[in-house]
Amino acid sequence: MLHDRKVAVVVPCYNEDRQVGKVLQTMPEFVDLVIVVDDASRDGTCDVVRRHIEAEGPNPRVVLIPHEKNRGVGQAIVTGYREALIRDIDVTAVMAGDGQMVPRQLRHIIEPVALDLADYAKANRLYYKRAWNIVPKHRYLGNAFLSMLTKIASGYWHVTDSQTGYTAISLKAMRTIDLDNVYSRYGYPNDMLVRLNVYNFRVVDVPLRPIYAVGERSKMRMWKVIPTMCWLLLNRFWWRMWRKYVIHDFHPLVLFYAMGVLLGLAGLALFGRMVWLWAANGRIPPMNTLFWVFCTISSIQFCLFAMWFDMERNRDAR
């Protein structure tokens, strides 16, 4: 226990037989339950975990839940959350089985939730002073880009490093979030932030040193992930607008966003018409240019005002 709160750690695994044993061996003593969810690994991950459980004796704190087929890291985490819910765990953390999340840093992630300073805490590797030299450059830039989009989609404008999976969540937040519909794969952390914001849960960033080159095997391909993530974030953005600012409590910022998008589309259409007329006739009608400038500037202004309203509305979610 930590600060009189029961603590569990979900360890999602997929082909992590090289690292998961070390993760389990170095788990801090204050952790009451370790839930290893094997997402249909094709190596010896389950065997490593079972040997660790046998070595713990008659009352092991580690439980193994295997998936019969691969369902994605998001669903593996949700499986662990459901087990923690059944056991009424106060604070549930997530620590990957690849060794990139150092167990000795776990206290820093859990404490804000255990002390009721936040409902959800997450690591932030980009705040570390030498992160640029430690994190592979393509990952750093990709993470920064997706973090910027996640700020807009989720409403947590103070949150960075949206792709980290080192997190802790309160029992109340777990009970509130619709776990059945959480995104199942690499967009899970982003989707979770959006869902937390709809219910005004407090989220905090915890700066931690990034860990790389410890024998982990990356399964993420940025050129595949980023287009999928952009579509997911666009979809979740409009879902949040509808749920939070129309269904739960109406706020005019949703109208500002809608007008910004409509005027932006009109501006693109007028720009296309300008190009077509210039190519066909060698001239551009002044009124076409005037309306294009009006729509473009108005679109930007409407969107900026909507973002400002969203920031103000979520000021207390820090």
Structure characteristics:
52% helix, 2 domains, Spore Coat Polysaccharide Biosynthesis Protein SpsA, Chain A, 318 residues, 11 helices, seven-stranded mixed β-sheet, alpha/beta
Description of the structure:
By secondary structure, the protein is an alpha/beta fold. It folds into two domains: 239 residues, Alpha-Beta Complex (Spore Coat Polysaccharide Biosynthesis Protein SpsA, Chain A); 67 residues. A seven-stranded mixed sheet has the order 3-2-1-4-6-5-7, with helices on both faces.
Topology:
Elements: E1 7-13, H1 20-25, E2 33-38, H2 45-56, E3 62-66, H3 73-86, E4 91-94, H4 106-114, E5 120-124, H5 131-134, H6 137-154, E6 167-170, H7 171-176, H8 188-198, E7 203-207, H9 222-248, H10 253-281, H11 286-313
Parallel strand pairs: 1-2, 1-4, 2-3, 5-7
Antiparallel strand pairs: 4-6, 5-6
Helix pairs in contact: 6-9, 8-9, 10-11
For the sheet with most strands, the description reads: 7 strands, mixed
What is the third-level CATH name, the topology of the largest domain?
Spore Coat Polysaccharide Biosynthesis Protein SpsA, Chain A
Corresponding CATH architecture of the largest domain: Alpha-Beta Complex
Total strand segments: 7
Spatial gap, N to C terminus:
25 Å
CATH superfamily of the largest domain: Spore Coat Polysaccharide Biosynthesis Protein SpsA, Chain A
Strands of the largest sheet, in order across it?
A: 3-2-1-4-6-5-7
Specify Rg, calculated over alpha carbons. Answer: 23 Å
- Strand portion, in percent? 5-15%
Structural class: alpha/beta
The H/E string reads EHEHEHEHEHHEHHEHHH
Number of helices: 11
| Whole-number count of domains | 2
Q: Into which percent range does the helicity of residues fall?
A: 40-55%
Q: Whole-number average pLDDT?
A: 91
**Ranges with pLDDT <50 over ≥5 residues?**
none
Overall geometric form:
elongated
Query: What is the CATH top level name of the largest domain?
Result: Alpha Beta
